[in-house]
Amino acid sequence: MLLKRQQNDQAGEVQNSISPGVSGDHHDTEDSSTMPGVAETLGQTADPEMQEFVNKYGDIQFEFIDAPPQNPWFTRPYALNYFHNGKLFRTRHERTSGRLELFLDLVYVGIAANLASAAIEEHTGASLGKYVLVFIPAWTIWADLKDFMNYYFNDDIIQRVFVLWILMLLVVYDNNCLFVDDLENRTPLLTSIVAYFLARASTGIIIVVYSFFIPEHRLQMRVFGLGAIIFGACWFFILLIHSIWGMVVFASLLLFIEQVHFCCNVHPWVKKNVMKLTHSTALNIEHEEERFHAFYIIALGEFLYSIVAGSPLRSGWNTNLAKGISVLVTAFMFMGIYASKDGSFKATHALRRSATTAMVFIYAHFVAIASLLIVGDAGAHLSEYEEKYLEEEDFGVLMFFHGGILIALGALTALSYADRDETPVGIHPVPKWARVGFRVPVGCLILGISWAYKSLTIVKIMWLDALFMILLTAYEFAVMNPWSHFYSPASNIALP
């Protein structure tokens, strides 16, 4: 959820990037070459491979910066990337997920499974709303850490201890957040609030401390850090509310306010007209992509974990096993659809295209991931269902399964439209809308099957779902990778 935008008045071009969590631009007009960690690369030309790597997400002027000396005890905080005078300044090497981030993902596997399972257990509108309200704070903490690593990762002992501290707080939050609606025993609510507040406040404090070392990001780092502390503390007011609906309204408003605070802090208009910034934060798009890919895979992991943990589909060849395999197939199709995006051979990434598309990139990921967590757990629940036909009281589970598929396909469609396709005309046999436009209709068709639960067995319903997903994926693969382009002598792509 971090928005960044740099306007180049001479070229009339606008560079945008957005990412959840931390951000920072600075109003200091000091030349970038005099700032700590900036290499004397002005006028130097990058090698062709690096030029191609940086520009693969969209053409942009760039220069490299050098990191300060690395020290496992303490590395002087520095910005890995920033915009200045319409040019991107970034570290030379590709940013990939560090060991700390991968370890963080392991914790989220358990958190995701716990929250989704609780929602499916009751399969009601109330349980779905509760799932959303308790998942957003966990997502926010993950986003804060993701951006902190994106901008300031140096792997010193301070950052390692900080990540461990946040993980401890996440474990505390996850083990209490599902019981926050217990009006008789408010200990889980208080514990969840304390854990969330400490996580956000800790992030805010370390960002404010880092701001003393990083002039390029200083102003926005402090605005974000102080806001995280203040709004995190506001959660304690929910203890004064003694009704479920009152707590729901308060939590919804405060979650919304936190997002408004973030958006105001990083919105291009605010940065230009209110903060008067000349230095704008810039993220490593390759790192941002990888982090969201990792979380997406975590969501798909909920499909697989639930059908193998404890051998729930035993024993031998049976209908439960058949249903479980259909869940596996559905998850595999979702992975393929996500990886293919819109099939563009050349595109400007949503994070670089504009502020609006960058926001779509962030929030569409949230919707897709939250939906797939529900789909995976609901699919596992249906796989273990012993009856041949679904009972009416369990219809909610099927609605969660099919509704989640529809919402996830809608979010993946939005993600595909966020990138700007720059593939030469004539490469694809059909335009972009025809390549990705069948996702929502297929999702609606799958949702419609829900009302056939009295006439179709559960295994037939689930394999119909898998069949439609297979057909959708096969169609998209064919139109996104045209045979004539790869096997025609006129193709400018090397033939196999």
UniProtKB/TrEMBL annotation:
Residues 1-40 are annotated as: Disordered. Keywords: Membrane, Transmembrane, Transmembrane helix. Residues 8-20 have a biased composition (Polar residues). The chain crosses the membrane at residues 126-145, 157-173, 193-214, 223-241, 247-270, 291-309, 321-339, 360-383, 395-415, 436-453, 459-478. InterPro entries: Low_temperature_requirement_A. Pfam families: LtrA. PANTHER family: BLL5714 PROTEIN. This is Low temperature requirement protein A. It comes from Cyberlindnera fabianii. The lineage of its organism: Eukaryota, Fungi, Dikarya, Ascomycota, Saccharomycotina.
